[in-house]
Specification:
heterodimer; A: mainly beta; 52% strand; globular; B: mainly beta; seven-stranded mixed sheet; four-stranded antiparallel sheet
């Protein structure tokens, strides 16, 4: 069974940093591209970042470029999102998602809530 | 950036009725890179359709997708009470993914 378990969310002040983790199991992590997708309270879905299987290519939505860094450790079956210079508008549930055929997101974790507030 | 606009915002139908959800793109989208998701209250999204018309694993055949270019449709042929959810379309192109704003399906 595919499982994605996010952790690391919490309350952080504006300008602060947070590192999210996603532990993957039930599939071959090293052959899957992975993404982070977020959802602000009561709002829709927004793709945040993507990383290729070997970590050689990374893409970001414009609003987080230069502030967020996606990374992975295939030996630990883990995905990460380092978030710096956090803003109130980054407040959201952050989901880890596994890539699928046709650039779709086949599996999602349960999400971890990040709240940026003073 | 390609913008996806979904309509209607809310759809209220009775069990057994047919639901037709629309997603229009601001420019042409690759049919291979177009998907639909279902998000039930308090849950993570679930992949329904990928590649415009391929059902994901375990998705009932009452869900179907169609379309091309800038206009795509998700059809639920016979609505069931458990289909209460928000449905999102999604596209990929030029190393960017974008989602529509969602259509909420209510069951009368």
């Amino acid at each position: 069974e595919v499982q994605l378990v996010e952790s690391g969310g919490g309350l952080v002040q504006p300008g602060g940093s947070l590192r999210l983790s996603c532990a993957a199991s039930g599939f071959t992590f090293s052959t899957s591209w992975m993404s982070w997708v977020r959802q602000a309270p009561g709002k829709g879905l927004e793709w945040v970042a993507n990383i290729k299987q070997d970590g050689s290519e990374k893409d970001y939505v414009d609003s987080v470029k230069g502030r967020f860094t996606i990374s992975r450790d295939n030996a630990k079956n883990s995905l990460y999102l380092q978030m710096n210079s956090l803003r109130a508008e980054d407040t959201a549930v952050y989901y880890c998602a596994r890539g699928w055929v046709g650039a779709a997101f086949a599996y999602w974790g349960q999400g971890t809530l990040v709240t940026v507030s003073s | 950036e390609i913008v996806l606009t979904q309509s209607p915002g809310t759809l209220s139908l009775s069990p057994g009725e047919r639901a037709t959800l629309s997603c229009r793109a601001s420019q042409s989208v690759s049919s291979s890179h177009f998907a639909w998701y279902q998000q039930k209250p308090g849950q993570a999204p679930r992949l329904l359709i990928y590649g415009t018309s391929s059902r994901a694993t375990g998705i009932p055949d009452r869900f179907s997708g169609s379309g091309s270019g800038t206009d795509f449709t998700l059809t639920i042929s016979r609505l069931e009470p458990e289909d209460l959810a928000v449905y999102y379309c999604q596209q990929y192109g030029s190393s960017l993914w974008t989602f529509g704003q969602g259509t909420k399906v209510e069951i009368k």
